[in-house]
Specification:
About 35% of the residues lie in helices and about 20% in strands. With about 950 residues, the chain is of the alpha/beta class.
């Protein structure tokens, strides 16, 4: 695209798709010599006022010289970027490097003038803010540290773009012009601004998909049957409140409707806007359909068509082209190979999915990458009986298929501030951007529960999913998700179990669990399950099999009023006799007692009480109101999926009254709903207790997250000196592992001191080294195959004199080979203690991770390592030390002396600071770290350096490219 005379090749990595404030997308890319006509056309569509603000004078048209200047760049000192939609410019930004005199300059000058021009029709969409993020990232890459901009005082919109960006600024006013100067290094405020804009834009893009004013089903067959006709029927059946159209290219001239819906041969023939298009045509015809949708101004697509990445390499390329084409027109995509989307809000009632009946309206947000799992989850949530009971419904449902564009991250952005969603349940088969997912999950979990089950844990992701490579095992990723507040479960049964509890019960204040019921045996099973899950159960209260509903009410009321418990599990079995309570009576007794003390969660474990689960759920907020247009809204049983059942008979007058009250409760705020207690019931004690355990741990995380720990600032850290040394080392090569001396020097700048070890290529050198260090000493090999393998005999400890040292040297060389192969070293003996390992790695997907465990084969065999994300806080370091299974060895197990865990935590924090301050430090391994009763000794260290990626999570907002 550029001529051979340009100083740099075209920087393709600057190209990016971005989501704008209104939820649409735009393409950001460098401006090249091929853009002359586009630039002229763009400029002609800009108002005279905007031109005046850009050039400070009337400037009706660009001269040939202007066009040449604005399209010829060296991509170093002169850079121009454009935001495009449909291949045409909607905005431009450029910078020119300047010197101290304000004239054009080259490096090492580190300041540049920046200027924007946004087409009037696209002002207010956040285009300039997005371009500022990208041009700032480009400038930093090219060694520019400051921007200067001159703006007319009347150009308040552009002044606001600069002032709201969050950079540290200096403003002056001279000769009628406002001059703004600001540094380009990201600040806490600029990152907060950027992420807030990202959240609003991505949430809005999902909202446009879930709450469209009009929907067109493209590929709706003229005869019943087929995917497109099925989706059309589902939209009608759900009672979609907007305008609905059918599109079929094979329609005859006199055919104006399909199944009572206005029909057209092309979406371009529809009069008026189309917000959402459901594409159900063969993959070969999708590009033509997408082009027509783009030309008509469709905002988003749900592509249920198959034949994409799930079908192999050819399909993967077809999928990439689909995303490129849709984003060209500013559209976002659910799919391809998607199951569809559902929104149960009364003012939307959207079922643009393959589910023949929509779920009940409720307050659970549900995301599933798999259509089969999605329908299974919808079905389970729909049932009243059979294990997971309670009529808790769905606010919105998204099944993303191959998630080529819209992913779980986007939907999390929407649910974070969605007032109609209280709990989020997600089934994920892959996480495309774990680093971003963890960040979003932490923020979401701070305000509402997020429960995740991950499929494909022990194998590769489904073929249709493009996933960033990760070197971390699944168990480590799970730990990091839990650290971010995610409730990680293993099965979809556990997903629903936890979701139903969290959707209608308060979070427990602690782990103390009271147990009461009419079966001593079931109570003991519940007691044992609590112990297995790390809870603190109180002795079960046996009401005997003759307990009446009044007995249950009284016992539950007393227990809830007792300050010695934080949650209550009620166990119930069928009983015979005149005093035995009926299902409805028992359910009402439990509900009324729970409603009188709504601050503690209540769960029921029931055995073969067919009606109790339904009775407990009778006051559910998500039951349908009278005249509800959602088919199959009545409760189901264990025997089948209510989701697919025919509509039930109309409710009686009394049922209508109850349903109206329930619907009113569904629209109430969480505080208003506090008085109405839906009690979840479970068929097994283990399931109920597991769900309660997850709620206890999540509540504890919420309390701790409310007061996050701090990252300490150590006065002896030499951040600048370390940066200079890293730059000097990387100047010698890309990616290198430091030698012991260089590693020790770098670590020393962060207060991490490596115990000195001297090479011993001969017995005489070993003796001289020991004399200098002072006896007793250790002699050990550093050969890769023997390093850290004391079990193989490559280490000799407590050598008290030269005679012992020489004897040990001879033994090692006789056993393992020549000194040249063994690379022996002599090191002074460290105080006795517990051998540990401290590591950090920058994973390409998850980011920087800090790990800790005990040294030795037993810990390695059990995989007993704990992990935290970097930067680690003081609280993270303390929990890291205590979360390994072998942690008791650090705290005086079986009468041993406790070690200095304060020093250990400080070491962890210093390693975290080093890696966080310098992204070039991609791996650190300290092994072993001997932690003594007083202090610690780092006996070995490995540090690896590499150039950080040009773009990371601190860079400008971009949509992923799969």
């Amino acid at each position: 695209m550029q001529t051979s005379s340009d100083r740099h090749e075209y920087p393709a990595h600057w190209e990016a798709d971005v989501v704008l404030r209104d939820g649409g997308t735009a393409r950001v890319r460098p401006i090249t010599v091929d853009d002359a006509e586009r630039l002229v056309s763009f400029y002609e569509q800009v108002s005279d006022e905007s031109k005046y603000y850009r050039f400070f004078a009337p400037y009706p048209r660009l001269s040939a010289k202007d066009v040449h200047r604005f399209t010829h760049h060296d991509f170093v000192d002169r850079v121009g970027l454009a935001a495009t939609v449909g291949g045409e410019f909607i905005a431009t930004v450029r910078y020119d490097r300047i010197g101290a005199d304000g004239m054009a300059a080259s490096a090492p000058a580190d300041e540049a003038e920046v200027a924007f021009l946004v087409q009037d029709a696209h002002q207010g969409r956040g285009v300039a803010s997005a371009l500022l993020e990208h041009i700032a990232a480009v400038a930093r890459e090219r060694g520019i540290r400051r921007f200067a901009a001159e703006v007319l005082p009347a150009n308040s919109k552009m002044i606001k773009v600069f002032t709201d960006a969050g950079y540290q600024q200096k403003r002056s006013f001279e000769d009628g012009v406002v001059r703004l100067e600001f540094g380009l290094e990201p600040t806490d405020r600029s990152l907060a601004v950027q992420r807030a804009r990202e959240q609003r834009a991505e949430a809005r893009s999902v909202q446009r998909l879930l709450a469209p004013g009009s929907v067109a089903v493209i590929g709706a067959g003229r005869a019943p049957g087929g995917v497109g006709r099925g989706v059309l029927a589902n939209l009608r059946g759900a009672g979609f409140t907007g305008r609905l159209y059918a599109v079929n290219r094979a329609l005859g001239e006199d055919e104006k409707e399909i199944d009572g819906v206005p029909a057209h041969r092309s979406v371009t023939e529809i009069e008026g806007p189309v917000d959402l298009a459901v594409v159900a045509v063969p993959a070969a015809y999708v590009p033509e359909v997408v082009a027509e949708c783009g030309e008509h101004g469709v905002q988003g697509l749900v592509v249920v068509s198959a034949g994409y990445a799930e079908s192999g390499p050819e399909g993967r390329e077809r999928q990439r082209e689909l995303v490129r084409q849709a984003r060209t027109y500013g559209m976002r995509i659910i799919g391809p190979n998607a199951f569809g989307i559902i929104n149960t809000a009364p003012d939307v009632r959207l079922n643009a999915s393959l589910a023949p009946e929509a779920p009940r309206s409720g307050r659970i947000g549900l995301f599933a990458q798999s259509g089969a799992i999605g329908i299974a989850l919808l079905s389970r949530l729909h049932r009243r009986g059979g294990g997971v009971t309670g009529v808790t419904g769905v606010s919105t449902f998204v099944s993303s298929g191959n998630r080529a564009d819209v992913s779980g991250n986007d939907v999390l952005q929407y649910w974070y501030e969605d007032p109609d969603t209280d709990v989020v349940l997600m089934y994920l088969e892959s996480i495309g951007n774990p680093r971003k997912f963890t960040r979003l999950a932490r923020r979401t979990a701070a305000v509402k529960p997020l429960v995740v089950v991950q499929g494909a844990r022990h194998g590769s992701a489904p073929q249709g999913h493009a996933v960033r490579a990760t070197e971390l095992p699944h168990t480590t990723v799970s730990v990091l998700l839990r650290q971010a507040g995610v409730i990680r479960v293993d099965t979809i049964t556990e997903l629903v179990d936890a979701g139903l509890l969290l959707a209608r019960q308060p979070l427990p204040a602690g782990p103390r669990v009271a147990i009461l019921g009419n079966s001593e045996s079931l109570g003991m099973l519940t007691y044992d399950a609590c112990l297995s899950e790390g809870l603190r159960p109180l002795p079960p209260l046996d009401l005997t099999t003759g307990a009446s509903a009044r007995d249950f009410h009284a016992a539950l009321s007393r227990t809830l009023a007792d300050d010695s418990c934080d949650a209550v599990v009620v166990t119930a079995i069928p009983a015979l006799g005149e005093t035995s309570p009926g299902d409805a009576a028992l359910a009402e007794a439990l509900r009324s007692a729970a409603a009188a003390n709504p601050s503690k969660p209540v769960l029921v474990v029931h055995v073969e009480l067919g009606g109790l689960a339904e009775a407990l759920s009778a006051a559910a907020s998500t039951a349908p109101q009278a005249g509800d247009r959602t088919p199959g809204a009545e409760g189901g049983t264990e025997g089948g999926s209510d989701l697919f059942r025919p509509a039930q008979p109309a409710p009686t007058a009394s049922q209508e009254t109850t349903a109206s009250q329930e619907t009113a409760e569904a629209t109430a705020s969480p505080s208003e709903r506090a008085g109405s207690r839906l009690i979840p019931a479970y068929p097994a004690a283990e399931r109920a207790v597991r769900a309660l355990s997850e709620a206890v741990h999540y509540a504890q995380w919420r309390r701790e997250a409310a007061e996050p720990g701090r990252v300490p600032a150590y006065e002896d850290i030499d951040e600048k000196g370390a940066a200079e040394r890293i730059d000097a080392l990387l100047a010698t090569g890309e990616g290198l592992t430091l030698g012991a001396e260089e590693a020790g020097a770098l670590l020393g700048r962060y207060g991490i001191h490596l115990r000195q070890a001297r090479p011993a290529p001969t017995p005489d050198e070993a003796a001289r080294a020991a004399e200098a260090l002072g006896y007793p000493v250790a002699l050990k090999t550093t050969a890769p195959h023997l390093r850290h393998r004391a079990d193989l005999g490559g280490v000799r400890l407590d050598l008290a004199d030269e005679e012992q040292l020489r004897r040990a040297y001879t033994e090692l060389t006789e056993l393992f080979g020549s000194p040249a192969e063994l690379r022996p070293v002599v090191q002074g003996m460290a105080p006795r203690g517990v051998d540990t390992i401290v590591r950090s790695v920058v994973d390409p997907a998850a980011g920087a991770v800090l790990s800790f465990g005990l040294a030795g084969p037993a810990s390695q065999l059990l995989g007993d390592m704990a992990h935290r994300l970097i930067p680690a806080t003081e609280r993270d370091a303390a929990s890291l030390v205590r979360s390994i299974r072998t942690a008791p060895l650090l705290f005086g197990w079986r009468g041993s002396a406790p070690v200095d865990t304060d020093a250990l935590e400080e070491l962890l924090l210093r390693v975290s600071r080093l890696v966080d301050d310098h992204p070039e430090v991609v791996a650190v391994s300290l092994e072993p770290v001997v932690v003594a009763p007083h202090g610690l000794s780092v006996l070995g260290a490995t540090v690896r350096l590499a150039r950080p990626p040009l773009r990371d999570d601190l860079g400008p907002r971009t949509l992923p490219v799969y």
